[in-house]
């Protein structure tokens, strides 16, 4: 009769040991890093009261690249602090890369969602204006009301999604519009969580 094995307690392994097993890093450490860096970035920006610090944080991806933030935050759930910050930087990056496309879709979406247009505040809806608003949203994260910044980003996504569904044809366009609507819903939920002190 074979002897039964006793269950072993799980143990934490250092990154070198995990790499030897073919795993890039410790998922628990990655989770902590995502939330700690997001909280530290937000605290730094909101406590600095310095326009130069705010400007640098707004343009963070210009300096370190979007991929760096993706490695830190993209895998976290949408309705968490790192998830929310990731979506705000992603939005700014997309608008910066395609301001004409963003402005065209935004302009097309206004007639479908006038209240969201009023909240987003892109006036007139041109390439320079959508870039300005994307920067203003992130500036509001660090030097204004964070919940309002999240709601403004959500409103922007709603308008663009409506415009994209109207001016672009095909399944891909529909899928992208749906993803923007999902992002808008997640950002709105994050605003509620922030006001309740539960966005972590």
Average pLDDT taken over every residue: 89
Question: What is the strand content?
Answer: under 5%
**Please, how many helices?**
11
- Tell me the span between the first and last alpha carbons: 52 Å
Q: Give the overall shape, derived from the CA principal axes.
A: globular
Number of structurally distinct domains? 1
> What Rg, in angstroms, do the CA atoms define?
20 Å
State the major sheet. Answer: none
H and E string: HHHHHHHHHHH
Runs in which pLDDT lies below 50 for 5 or more consecutive residues are 5-19
Name the structural class: mainly alpha
Keywords summarizing the entry:
200 residues, mainly alpha
Describe the protein in words:
Helix 6 packs antiparallel against helix 9, helix 8 (114-120) packs across helix 10 and helix 10 (146-167) packs antiparallel against helix 11. The chain is mainly alpha-helical. It has one domain. The protein has helices at residues 15-20, 27-48, 51-58, 60-64, 66-73, 81-97, 99-109, 114-120, 127-143, 146-167, 171-195. The protein is built from eleven helices and no strands. The radius of gyration is 20 Å and the shape is globular.
């Amino acid at each position: 009769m074979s002897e039964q094995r006793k269950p072993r307690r799980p143990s934490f392994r250092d990154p070198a040991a995990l790499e030897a097993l073919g795993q890039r890093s410790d998922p628990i450490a990655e989770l902590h890093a995502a939330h700690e860096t997001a909280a530290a970035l937000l605290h730094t920006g909101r406590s600095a009261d310095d326009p130069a610090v705010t400007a640098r944080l707004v343009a963070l991806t210009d300096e370190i690249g979007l991929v760096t933030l993706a490695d830190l935050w993209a895998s976290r759930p949408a309705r968490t602090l790192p998830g929310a910050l990731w979506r705000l930087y992603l939005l700014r990056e997309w608008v910066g890369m395609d301001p004409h496309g963003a402005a065209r879709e935004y302009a097309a979406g206004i007639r479908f969602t006038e209240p969201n247009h009023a909240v987003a505040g892109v006036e007139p809806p041109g390439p320079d204006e959508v870039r300005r608003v994307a920067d203003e949203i992130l500036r509001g994260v660090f030097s204004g009301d964070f919940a309002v910044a999240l709601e403004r980003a959500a409103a922007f996504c709603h308008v663009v999604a409506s415009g994209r569904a109207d001016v672009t044809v095909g399944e891909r366009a529909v899928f992208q519009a749906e993803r923007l609507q999902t992002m808008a819903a997640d950002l709105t939920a994050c605003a509620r969580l922030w006001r309740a002190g539960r966005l972590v």
